[in-house]
């Protein structure tokens, strides 16, 4: 038939292979009759399905010779199916065996190194019990750790010590899946600023094997030797610092200016009877004002029950305080001590500075170098050279025996020898400094200063700030308009622009610049005024209007450069060696500001130290870099920073000489060796008040006097300068 498919054929059009009688689970006997062919499918049978039909005749299939009666053609499906079933069964059995083998196999031993890293972290944190430990004691590892390192942690800081894993030995497997390994740790304790205590400890690691099919954890055997070498049960580390002797401050000639001085620290001891009323009585005996006494009483009340409140340090045999009367007060105690002090309480105090307990800020900034309670420089030279003066503390770490242990002795674990502080040599001349201080004693609450420099060397011989400065270092840090003393710098700029001492200038009563009127100081001599006054006369009498008349000829930059050549507003090549300022002369200014700069006002600022440097440079014939702490090495060999020439300086000396001969500093005419001077008056506020100055050069000494408020440089500062130089 064509065009359609026989209903007795499967969908692919091929005759199906007949199944054996009884289905595929039946194997015919060898050599038996061939099975009958299948009949047509029933109506319940889908094409391609086989349904055995008995007694349906048909030709027997061909027999393959030697096959035992096996029909030729496709191999019997029943044998192939059985083979497949057998193979599948074997594979299932094999798979089940392999899976069971994998399931039953113990997990691999973990790498010990991550565990050792965890132990290192626990040791650094101070919590060794955070790591699995094997113990042979009931003691708490964390508590033992804290006890062992208590003093060391206090000495170096809570977060200062570090523990790092150095190495781990390859693990060694044992029976039953166990293993062992050894970890070595490096401990570092920064016990000094430039030195650390480093040592190694060893931990025995064990792996107990898996538990419940899961991998186990590495454990460490707990032993105090894990914290420090040789440490045994009950022992701990002790730390003792040995304080160095603070270096002295000496003169360049070796004379001690500041050294250890016997004192008594006087305070109130709250463990003593009578402390409740001690503050009021002590304040009365020592002459404190009510506010100070009340502050002391408040400190006493707020302090702990066993506190000692330090009130004052009194030198032995100090005539200013009645030490014996203070000791007679119930609750008051005097503790003997030695601290670095100057020969006299007020000797250059603002320059030399003070020593006291390190503040919290100083401790923090030192990054471990300085500890709470250390004595350090708090100001002045003591602070600037604190590291050199302070030295390096010694430190001893010892292993202390367990409490109650018989025959136990301390064993040294680590030692740093102390290094005493080195002296600092300064330029101050005691006699000159004391004379300057005495000269300023009577100026009440006014800030005052005297600075004296030796021009030939740049050494600062005196830097005195008067009582009215209230402890502030007016001498080297106080900045004020220098007034007419700045005319030395203005004159240098004019000389460089072609003016000579004999050049004439207009010295009028007033001069107007862009609507602002400038005039001379009250009492300016009429004889020194006119339309054509010699420059030497203008300088000698300090004619403001004459100098301002040149503001168009001299730029602000030229003023700045001339001032720098004299050391004012300059960057000096030689370090001063303490707290110092050298003023400021702007490089730009115009109009009335520039005009004011010509006479040392406007935005021009100077310190007494800077103006003394100007006088010293004129005297020396080159730019002087003043110094307080003796320069060493390359600093001592540094060339002057400025460009002042000897010819320029000689002309300036001649002009300053005229100030003494005929000008505003005639008061100094009887000073031996006087070379020259210059006065200065700088109005401030509403113009009714003035800062007053005087510079002077006498022999190999350049000095400046500054008084915060006065009438004129000639009338107020002049007599002070005379008194100071007269004792030279």
UniProtKB/TrEMBL annotation:
PANTHER family: PENICILLIN-BINDING PROTEIN 4B, PEPTIDOGLYCAN D,D-TRANSPEPTIDASE
TM ranges: 83-104
UniProt keyword terms in alphabetical order: Antibiotic resistance, Hydrolase, Membrane, Signal, Transmembrane, Transmembrane helix
Catalysed reactions, as listed in the record: a beta-lactam + H2O = a substituted beta-amino acid
Compositionally biased spans, kind Low complexity: 42-56
InterPro entries assigned: Beta-lactam/transpept, Beta-lactam/transpept-like, Beta-lactam_class-D_AS, PBP_dimer, PBP_dimer_sf, PCN-bd_Tpept
Compositionally skewed regions (Pro residues) per UniProt: 30-41
Compartments, as annotated in UniProt: Membrane
Chain positions covered by the region annotation Disordered: 1-77
Main enzyme class: hydrolase
Family: Belongs to the transpeptidase family.
Principal place of residence: membrane
Protein's recorded name: Beta-lactamase
Hydrolase is among the record's keywords: yes
Span of domain Penicillin-binding protein dimerisation: 242-404
Residue ranges constituting the Penicillin-binding protein transpeptidase domain according to the UniProt record: 449-725
EC assignment: 3.5.2.6
Pfam families per record: PBP_dimer, Transpeptidase
